[in-house]
Design brief:
Length: 150
């Protein structure tokens, strides 16, 4: 291991500085994570919210709004991730591994389910994502909580 990395490794867990939430038991060793966590304890009226320009959706975090905006895009404009075991399809990459777990045998772990999905769907390692053409799919649009399509 390079010397630079060794200098920053703590000798034991008791030497690691933690940043603690004053409202709950949340702890982190990353100073920048605490202000993000603290947003969950504040009322929406107390903090800046990110408003969707197309519906009434509001989010405390910009990343949540960015993810929400996928529901307003046509399927031809985004990558669609589909389950190789059933007809489930989603615009949100993060939902697929969780969904695949419902088909998984209890003896397998999450990583093997993800690897199987990558192999069956043509995982492109150089791009780090599943390459699926939306025009090849029969996509069923779902309605979300704000009345828009997913």
């Amino acid at each position: 291991m390079p010397l630079k990395k060794l200098l920053f490794l703590p000798q034991d867990a008791s030497n690691v500085k933690t940043y603690d939430c004053s409202f709950c038991s949340f702890k982190t060793k990353h100073k920048s994570y605490l202000p993000i966590h603290m947003l969950i304890h504040q009322d929406a009226s107390e903090i800046k919210t990110h408003q969707c320009a197309l519906c009434s959706y509001k989010a405390k975090r910009k990343g949540q709004l960015t993810a929400h905006m996928l529901i307003h895009k046509d399927a031809s404009e985004v990558t669609i991730y589909d389950c190789s075991f059933c007809s489930f399809k989603t615009k949100h990459k993060r939902y697929l591994p969780t969904h695949v777990l419902i088909h998984q045998d209890a003896s397998k772990d999450v990583k093997s389910a993800q690897n199987q999905e990558h192999n069956e769907k043509g995982y492109n390692e150089s791009e780090g994502r599943l390459a699926i053409k939306s025009e090849e799919l029969d996509i069923k649009e779902e309605e979300d909580e704000c009345g828009g399509n997913k």
